[in-house]
């Protein structure tokens, strides 16, 4: 405990780090306050129970309840994430975007500008769908046409403001701003879910509640292992000999050995997000025919229940498929092999160039399959927790996208804080002076 208090003192003794932390906290407070400002012209009493369903519940969790409150931040940063995913896919498939990506800083600025414009267009579409699909007509207290137009403008402005907040956190604060906004929305719902679960258990079932917390601890530890796990591929670099002073030496030239860290989970949370966005389609389509068709009624009922085995089996299969897909578009073995060859590096026992690319590709395939299985298990863990008697709101923290995002953002933020401590010659957050899982170059 004494070491922890000393570390906190060291963190706030660094002026730049202290300023970044305070800036981050202030911007996050602004984001949270905005999530409670309701769209003008609405009767909040008529909004209760306005949104429900797996996909809507996921959005509401990411946005800290702003989605269900019809807040000015009801769409939050999600349109920007959708636009970023579209642009990322275009950089793989469209040569024009590939050329921009290779242009360096100027290319990245162009891509960011296109992403912002696409975000505005997506926000307008999602804003109209949000108003039409989630806000009941009886909740609108003003002229409906005026309300729709004004709300679309306000929701779009709210998303642009959230995007600005995320960029400011990244530039002036600590951590990745966009991820931080999503994480704070998820974390904001955790205390209420925890208290509600404790109250529902009562003193007579206190032991059961403690067992739930222990199970949650081990689930979090497993997700941390998945997030930080890497497969280290040894890479040998020829030692650079400069000048003539080394020429008379008869000693053999010793190469420098380092490691190429290939993350076990290169896809991150994207497979779960993609799969989750598709899982509401069967029940949505079937609900249109359930009054006249028994099969459609069965599909609508089954896929509306996130604890059914049909839902979870389909969800797990989609996650596995999307894990391989997203890993394939984010990890480019040929590019890695070309960069290694250009820098004079090679994998011991493997020829540079195409053989190295095939070697790395085989490793990526072997580590992706267990990662995909683990991600699928993590994604369906909330269903098992709910079936075990945990409340639906608290069970969301036993896995799924929420837990993966929280763990990833917190670890990334801790690593950034630790880098400041080490630069100022303070002891790091861990006994070893480095957060577990950080990649250190090993020189032979």
Automatic annotation (TrEMBL):
Any GO BP annotation: intracellular protein transmembrane transport
Domain of life per record: Bacteria
CC terms in the record's Gene Ontology section: plasma membrane
Subcellular compartments: Cell membrane; Membrane
Transmembrane feature ranges: 21-39, 72-97, 117-135, 147-166, 178-199, 205-226, 267-289, 309-331, 367-385, 397-414
Stated family: Belongs to the SecY/SEC61-alpha family.
Full protein name: Protein translocase subunit SecY
Subunit structure: Component of the Sec protein translocase complex. Heterotrimer consisting of SecY, SecE and SecG subunits. The heterotrimers can form oligomers, although 1 heterotrimer is thought to be able to translocate proteins. Interacts with the ribosome. Interacts with SecDF, and other proteins may be involved. Interacts with SecA.
One Pfam family cited in the UniProt record for this chain: SecY
Function: The central subunit of the protein translocation channel SecYEG. Consists of two halves formed by TMs 1-5 and 6-10. These two domains form a lateral gate at the front which open onto the bilayer between TMs 2 and 7, and are clamped together by SecE at the back. The channel is closed by both a pore ring composed of hydrophobic SecY resides and a short helix (helix 2A) on the extracellular side of the membrane which forms a plug. The plug probably moves laterally to allow the channel to open. The ring and the pore may move independently.
Keywords in alphabetical order: Cell membrane, Membrane, Protein transport, Translocation, Transmembrane, Transmembrane helix, Transport
Membrane topology: Multi-pass membrane protein
Alphabetized NCBIfam families for the sequence: 3a0501s007
């Amino acid at each position: 405990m004494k070491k922890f208090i000393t570390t906190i003192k060291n963190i706030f003794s660094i002026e730049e780090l202290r300023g970044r932390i305070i800036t981050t906290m202030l911007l996050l407070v602004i984001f949270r306050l905005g999530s409670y400002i309701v769209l003008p012209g609405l009767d909040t009493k008529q909004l209760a129970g306005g949104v429900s369903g797996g996909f809507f519940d996921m959005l509401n969790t990411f946005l800290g309840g702003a989605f269900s409150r019809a807040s000015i931040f009801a769409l939050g940063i999600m349109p920007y994430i959708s636009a970023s995913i579209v642009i990322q896919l275009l950089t793989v498939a469209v040569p024009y975007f590939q050329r921009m990506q290779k242009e360096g800083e100027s290319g990245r600025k162009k891509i960011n500008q296109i992403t912002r414009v696409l975000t505005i267009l997506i926000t307008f579409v999602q804003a109209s769908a949000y108003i039409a699909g989630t806000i009941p007509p009886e909740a609108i207290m003003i002229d409906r046409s005026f309300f729709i137009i004004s709300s679309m403008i306000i929701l779009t402005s709210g998303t642009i403001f959230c995007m600005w907040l995320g960029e400011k956190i990244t530039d002036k604060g600590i951590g990745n701003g966009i991820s931080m906004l999503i994480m704070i929305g998820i974390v904001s719902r955790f205390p209420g879910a925890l208290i509600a679960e404790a109250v529902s258990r009562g003193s007579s079932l206190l032991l059961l509640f403690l067992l739930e917390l222990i199970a949650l601890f081990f689930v979090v530890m497993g997700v941390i292992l998945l997030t930080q796990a890497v497969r280290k591929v040894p890479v040998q670099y020829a030692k650079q000999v400069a000048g003539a002073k080394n020429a008379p030496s008869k000693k053999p030239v010793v190469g420098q050995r380092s490691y190429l860290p290939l993350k076990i989970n290169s896809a991150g949370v994207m497979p779960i997000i993609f799969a989750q966005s598709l899982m509401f389609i069967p029940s949505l389509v079937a609900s249109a025919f359930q009054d006249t068709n028994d099969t459609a009624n069965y599909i609508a009922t089954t896929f509306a229940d996130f604890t059914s085995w049909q839902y979870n089996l389909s969800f797990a299969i989609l996650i596995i498929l999307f894990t391989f897909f997203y890993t394939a578009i984010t990890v480019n073995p040929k590019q890695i092999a070309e960069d290694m060859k250009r820098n004079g590096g090679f994998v011991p026992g493997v020829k540079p160039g195409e053989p190295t690319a095939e070697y790395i590709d085989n490793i990526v395939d072997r580590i992706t399959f267990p990662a995909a299985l683990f991600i699928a298990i993590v994604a369906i863990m909330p269903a098992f927790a709910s079936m075990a008697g945990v409340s639906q709101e608290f069970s969301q923290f036993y896995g799924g996208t929420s837990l993966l995002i929280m763990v990833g953002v917190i670890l990334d933020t801790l690593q950034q804080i630790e880098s400041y401590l080490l630069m100022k010659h303070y002891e790091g957050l861990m006994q070893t002076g480095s957060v577990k899982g950080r990649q250190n170059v090993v020189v032979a």
